[in-house]
Amino acid sequence: MPSEYTEPVEISASVAEANRKAAERLREGGSQDFEDAQRGLLAQPDVPAIYSRSDSGKVVWSFTAYDFLTDGDEQAPPTVNPSLWRQGRLTAVAGLFQVTSGARGGVYQVRGYDLSNMTIIEGDQGIIVIDPLACYETAQAALKLYRDTTGNRNPVRALIYTHSHVDHFGGARGLFAERNDEIPDGLPVIAPDGFLEHAVSENVYAGPAMSRRAEYMYAANLDKGPYAQVGSGLGLTVSTGEVTLLPPTDSIGAAQAVTSDDWSPADVIPWREGLHRRVIDGVRLLFQLTPGTEAPAEMNIYLPELRALCMAENATHNQHNILSLRGAQVRDAHAWAKYLTDAIQTFGEHTEIEFASHHWPRWGKESILEFLSNQRDMYAYLNDQSLRLINRGYTGIEIAEELQHLPAGLAEHWYNQGYYGSLSHNFKAVYQRYMGWFDGNPAHLWNLPPTEAGTRYVAAMGGAEAVVRKAQEAYDNPQADSQTYRWILELLNHVVFADPATVSEKAVQDAKALQAKVFAQLGYGAENGPWRNFYLTGAEELRTGPQQPTSKGAPDLVHSMTLEQIFAAMARSVDGPKAAQEQRAAIVLQWQFTDTGQECTTTLRNGVLVYVDGKDLYAGKPQATISLTRATFDSLVLEGPLFQRNFDAAVKAGTIRVDDQAAADTVLGYLTVPDPSFPIVTP
């Protein structure tokens, strides 16, 4: 549900003027994107919203929430950056679209039903689905729209994941709602090699923290409108339904690529090393692996019969993230540019249609080559110019301030604008990739934490009331601009994070109220969707406190994990300092899974939970042997905070056998619970 309504912050004169000037600078010739976004439209959503299958009153995706974009003025309201408004209107175009057609059938996309697109390829006797959106409910609704519009009831013959992000696999099981959730035997599920490993590492290991920050990045909890959320640049927002996963049955890259001797005229393009081929339901597909680009495991797909190229998420109608603001591993901008070059050289001459897992397609070889080349140049520029300045002694912050604009030849294209990634945080990300968090200045080697620093800064500046007064004076200045607002935030952050025993409650509340106004002003002026969302969510949480999370656990992810991955996730929840202090001797547990025949050993020592497949040759005699089924184990993992309690209950019920329950309980007692609503803008 949207957050509790609060009176919106009125836009300042300086931000309104900056947005007005930005509207004047908007480049001409922008109608082609709107024509392309509407091209091939066959049907629009026939429902106002999509609801949760487990809670009929919960909306997991709303179409009408964005009516202000689709039905509103072309001209942006004063409280929205006009460039971001344009992007929001484009991403709000929702429905079923025919991308192209051939002798065998058509290629369709369902867009505007989630953050990502779902692509459907018609084969001889069925359909192939690429990227089934982020949750069960939106995938089910998207497939229904296709079925109802085209009348095609042929079964799903294969499922393809282009990469390892949840908005490209989370709806997998929703495709089979029409079969009462029965998955066809032998269904090919195709993904790039390493997909499952990276899907787990991103969604499980640091999942709670990433999910919390994703609340800020996509602002699913915020109201939608000119004073609130207007999209995320890459799409509108992320759906909040049930995340599912069908594990891959065919990993592209695990086997040898196609050799020149095996190449066929039906492949259309000249042979190049490293390509993989599959023929599914009569449809020939060529795969180009692109590891380390937008995702650690990703691939582009070429359909030679249709001269159509799927660029996954490697080329979209915005500048993407080198480092996602929700948190992730830093991406390799150099590799990203390299694989775009490879795609151009491999497919360019024989491509007439380009589509991706976000945004709208492009038609015509020249338009596609220009698009891919300029996207390539943009990522190469981010990488190379960061390194140029790194080697001149610049820090990440300094690089971002020095290079605030792309070269004119890149900046003149809408698809290179920073609607999702930004020059500012992308330059900092490249710095982080090569140089890490430390800028080399010993003054920054051992910084005080926010509360300690805030307490001392506030005292040095004459107390909290004086700091808030100074910040208010700066905010009230009619000439206040983004630089001023950034400085005000630094001042007020020290008050908000100061030790409560050293500042008055009134001063803290005044600081929060003013900081919320400043967040709002920076949000109103932001061209970048996630920046706007971060600022406005931060403002909301300063007023009302952290919101309840919109995401929940994903059983399919747990069922798909190896034992090593599950115990690695458990190890990350061990209270290491407490365990190390209280348990000077190692505690060894032998785990036996009676249904799979697997065995493993875990050892708690020095505050670390060590996993060994099979028997640990050097850990010594186990203090306890635990026998259970994998299904029972998975159910314990999914309970999360109740793991030890449910373990003990299962022992009592006889579904788990353990010869020394006290030893097992000692280890399990050190597992801690993540906080899914931890504060971000407050201590």
TrEMBL record:
Q: Does the keyword Iron apply?
A: no
Which biological process terms from the Gene Ontology are attached to this UniProt entry? dodecyl sulfate metabolic process
**Superkingdom to which the source organism belongs:** Bacteria
By its UniProt entry, which CDD domains does this protein fall under? arylsulfatase_Sdsa1-like_MBL-fold (cd07710)
Which keywords has UniProt assigned to this entry? Hydrolase, Metal-binding, Zinc
* SUPFAM superfamilies listed in its UniProt record: Metallo-hydrolase/oxidoreductase, SCP-like
- Entry GO MF terms: linear primary-alkylsulfatase activity; metal ion binding; protein dimerization activity
Every copy of the Metallo-beta-lactamase domain together lies at 115-359
Pfam families in alphabetical order: Alkyl_sulf_C, Alkyl_sulf_dimr, Lactamase_B
Q: Which family does it belong to?
A: Belongs to the metallo-beta-lactamase superfamily. Type III sulfatase family.
Report the protein name in the record: Beta-lactamase-like protein
Question: Which species does the entry assign this protein to?
Answer: Streptomyces chrestomyceticus JCM 4735
